Amino acid sequence: xxxxxxxxxxxxxxxxxxxxxxxxxxxxxxxxxxxxxxxxxxxxxxxxxxxxxxxxxxxxxxxxxxxxxxxxxxxxxxxxxxxxxxxxxxxxxxxxxxxxxxxxxxxx
Length: 108
What we know:
Helix content: over 70%
Largest sheet: none
Shape: elongated
Radius of gyration: 30 Å
Mean pLDDT: 75
Number of helices: 4
Structural class: mainly alpha
Distance between the termini: 86 Å
Order of helices and strands: HHHH
Number of strands: 0
């Protein structure tokens, strides 16, 4: 009789854990699919500062998804002073000259 009760308790405990895990998984899926407006509204319910931070975060997400904001591979990168970075630095030029010398010596 006791063994039947223990096995029944184990089965119920496993069933309860399974229900909880599936419920948590569904909750996480619902939380991941909230829209930007819902996230902002939820943040404003916490505090005004949280709402403002969420608005900034959502705006940056939208900007990052825009192809216009992706880096252009053929545009010159600007340094901190706003000047274009030279196409090749002194190190790159030295490495290129070394490669050319090696190719001349090895004949490849």
